[in-house]
Every structure is written in structure tokens, then in C-alpha cells.
Fold:
Amino acid sequence: MSSIVALDPETGDYLWHYQTNPGESWDYTSSMDIVLADLTLEGRAVKAILHAPKNGFFYVIDRTNGRLLAAEPFAETTWAERIDLETGRPVEVPGARYENGPARVAPSIAGAHSVQPMSYSPQTGLVYLPTIHAAGIFDDSEIDLANWTPGEVRIGVATSWTPEDDGAGFHASLQAWDPVAGRAVWEVPQSGLVNGGTLTTAGELVFQGREDGIFLAYDAWSGRELWQMDLGLGITAPPISYAVGERQYIALLVGYGGGIASGIMGARAPRFGWEHGRQTRRLVVFALDGQADLPTQPPPVPAAPLAAGGFVVEAQLAAMGGDLWGGYCSGCHGPEAIPSGMAPDLRASAMVLSEEGFEVVVRRGLMSTRGMPGFGSLTNDELLALRHYVRSRAEVAAPSSGAR
Ligand code: HEC
Structure:
């Protein structure tokens, strides 16, 4: 758990391991990328690995033996004062394990860096790190382990978690991190929370796509923006570079999804206006002398829940449906039925008005080949409750006078 493990590639034999978070309690995984770099640390040549896991510390480790060489915070880290270089263990802050009750802890459950890869340039000696700046309230005081069943999102942990701030407080940045000096050399603030992975090239450029669909190139030394283009749909993937003959290409998968889009940080993602099936997910390829016109995407749209006077919401059924929603539907259709483009906005769906249509799709899986799983175990009462919940959410968003 939360470890780097080195194996012999020939035999599979275990060589060494390093654990970033012993007794991990915040979902601070170490499943982020690991970059090889040959560095000079205090006059000594080191074959290093570089690793920036969710816990907010940037680790430099000797890859020949697993020895920790440096670990500096690259974002707010309230859970630990520092990492002890002698023992390799974090020096944790009392209370950060919410052992005394609810605790504000940074980084949040989303981590200070997620699975969007960073990149390292041997020319600048810098690592280009997509960083998330957010904290959350961790709390297990209400959880009775003897009678506990997974709630809200069924990720199987006995901890509740709320974003500290669902408004302007969250932000992201692109940092150029110097792994030798242990500090950021430049930083570009970003309003989104989870932007795409980075690519750095021998031409001393850094490329990155953002949540809002903008793809950018920066000067790798200074962070100065050199170029940008609107690709019309949120970007989370990293670009890649390759050459065919003498011609160099940059390729990027454009499309919005993943844990943040599914609403782990609350209903933030919908503000971009990405709508399921409206904007096309696509592979976009660039070359310096490229002449092709990029087909335009339909513009982002504001949510437009359906007004349906004939459907009378019953509060008790809606409440029951809300409980089911968190476990079964919110991961794709969004928390509180506010989606971010991974699945349709059911507040705008006429199918929710139809008992038969809803049953065929939701229980019998009519659309399962199109990414809408069938939930065969749902009872008639549960299906009814889900419909009342979705309609209750539609009415909050579109009172009877409301939009289309
Ligand atoms: C794994 C992701 C996922 C989950 C979980 C999920 N859905 Fe869906 N759902 C989809 C996708 C994708 C579509 C769109 C399929 C298409 O039209 O191509 C969809 C479509 C639908 C539709 C049809 C909407 C329309 O107007 O065409 C309904 C109704 C629906 N889902 C209800 C639910 C309910 C209720 C739940 C929870 C019990 C749920 N879904 C869980 C992904 C999901």
C-alpha cells in the first residue's frame, strides 16, 4: 500500500521497497508516475527516481537501492511536518488521522498530484508537475464499525469526506519543480482542479491540456505561454511526441472523465458545460507545418432540466432514491444528478417520466453496450424512488416556469 517496489526485470525477484505512507488513512496512494533521472546531488552522481504522489511531497530516491535522498512539499501538506530522511518515515501532525474528531487535512482525497503524468527535461533539469491545491474534512466519528455498510460512494472506506470548499478556494497549477534544489522554479496558476498530464520536448517546450479544453505550449525555462488552442472538450490525458522520418508530431486524446469529473470534489466539473454525446472525444495530432482545419465542436451548454408538470414528486420516495443514487448512479450521472459529461443529464431526460422506459434501461440494461449498465437487482420500489429523486433534482434546477 502506498509504496514503490523494485523488482528484477529478469527474474521478478524483489529488490527493495519504499513506503510513502505507512498506515495510509487519506487515500494517499503512490500510483502516480515514476520518472528516471540522472542527477547530481551535493556533488555526487545519483541514478534517481522522481515521484510526486498524492500526499504532496516530492520524493527523490536512489533507484539502485531505494534510499530516500530528498522529500520536499510541493503543495500544502497539513498531515505531516516533514519526511525524516534518516528513517524515511513521515513526521505526522497529531490529529491529522482525525483520531480526535473531524480534521481539515491537505492534500484532499484527490491528492496534490493525481494520475495525470508529470514530465522531466534533462535540458532544464526541471519536472513539469500538474498540481492540485485543495483540502478536505476527514471524519470517522459517526462511523460504527460493528454496523457499518459503505455509504454515499461505495469505495469501501469507513471514513466520510467532504471537500473543504466547493467554490473558488480550489485551484490547480502547473509547477516547474527543481528536484535538486527541492523547490518550484516557476508556477502557472490554473482555475481548473485537475488538468492534463504534461509533455516536455527537446525543443524546450512544455505541453499541457486543461479541463476547460485549452491546449497550451509553454517555454520550459520560464513558464511563459507561447501558444494555445481551444480543442472544444475537456482534456485530462497527457500529450505524446513521436517522429515519422524527419517530421515530429504531438498527439493528444481529447475527452473529459475520471474521478474528478465523476464528482469526488463535489459538483464542480459541470461548470465547463461538457454534455454527454454532444462534444466528440477525439485524437488530435499536430505538426509544425500542419495545415488541417480542426472540425469545430458544439459549444459548451448550460444544463437545461426538463420541466414536467405531470410528474408529482413525493418527498419520501425522493429521499429513498437519493440514498440509492449515491451508491449506483452518481459515479457517472453526477453527484446530486448534476453530470459533467460522462453520462447524460437525467434531469433533462424524458425517459425518467416513463415507468416502462426507465425499467428497460436501468434494470434490464437495454443500453449496456453503450456504457449504461443494467442494474438487475433493483426492485420496482427502488426504480420508482430513483425516478422521484431525479425529478426532485430537476425541479430544484428548473422550477415549473423553467427552461426547455
Ligand atoms: C458506468 C456509468 C453509468 C452508471 C453507473 C449509470 N449510468 Fe445511466 N447512462 C450511462 C451512459 C453512458 C448513458 C448513455 C447511453 C447512450 O445513450 O449512449 C446512460 C443513460 C441512462 C439513461 C437514459 C437516458 C436517456 O434519456 O437516454 C437512464 C434513464 C439512466 N442512464 C439511468 C441511470 C440510473 C438510474 C443509474 C443508477 C441506478 C445509472 N444510470 C447508472 C452511464 C451510466
About this structure: The domain at 114-134+170-301 is CATH 2.40.128.630 (Lipocalin). The radius of gyration is 24 Å. Residues 399-404 have pLDDT under 50 and may be disordered.
